[in-house]
Amino acid sequence: MDYTYPHHQPPTPNVSAQEKARRFAPDYDQELTEWETAPSEWQHLCSCRFGPARNSHIGHPWSGDSYRYDLYARPEHRKLALRWQNGSGCGWLTCDDLERREETNLLRVIAALSDESRRWDACHFLYQTAHKTALAAALTETRRLSLAFLEHRLKRVKVRGRNAHRVEVLPQPPGQAEVQRRFTVAAWARTLIPAEARASRGPRWPSTASPPTPRSCTPGSKTSASAPIALF
Predict the structure, then answer these.
(1) Does pTM top 0.90 for this prediction?
(2) Burial class of residue 13, CB neighbours in 10 A (0-12, 13-18, 19+)
(3) How many whole angstroms separate alpha carbon 51 and alpha carbon 55?
(4) Extended beta strands in 38-190, E state
C-alpha cells in the first residue's frame, strides 16, 4: 500500500536511540509503568500525519503538525505500538497483536486506512484517551488519599516477617460518604449564588462546619464497619 502524502514532514519520524514506552492498558493489578524501548527494533508500518490545515472553532485554519503519530510492529514479539510526538516530547503506547487468536487489533485497522488524515484522527483519539485517563486516575487517587489523610484513615502497618511497612486506607463508616457528598454539594451550590444575595440572605449553615467523624473511623478502632483496604 502506498502511504506517500504531500507533506513537509518526513515519511518516517526522527527518533532517538531509546525512547520511553508504556502499555495502552496495563494488566490487572499492575501499576502504570514506563520503560525504554529502541525504535530500531520496531518495523515502521505507516505514518499518521495531520495533512492540510482544517477549519477550527475560532474561524482560522488549524494545522495539527504539532502532533505526529506513527504505527509500528514487532512481529517476533507479537507487539504493536503507536508512537506519539508533540510539544511535550514523545513516547510509545504498546499493545499485543492477537492475530494468532483471530482478533483484529485496532492499530491494524488504522494502518489499513488509505487516507492519512483519517489515520491521524484515529491515533489522536487513542492518544488523548490513554493520556487523559492516566492523568485522571492519578488525580483521583491523590484526592482519595488526601481525604483519607484528613479523616485520619491512613494506617501504617508492619509487614509480618520483614523489616518493612505498608500503608492501609481504613474504610469510611456507613453514612460518612453521604455526609461528605452533601457538604461538598452544599459548598459548590454556594458558589452559584451571587455574593450580594448570600449577604442579604445570611448564612444558611456555619462557614466552619465540617462533616462529623464517627468514632468507628478512628484508626485502629475495633468497631470499624469493614476490613481495611491495602494500598500496597
Answers:
(1) no
(2) middle
(3) 12
(4) 43-48, 68-74, 79-86, 89-96, 154-158, 165-169
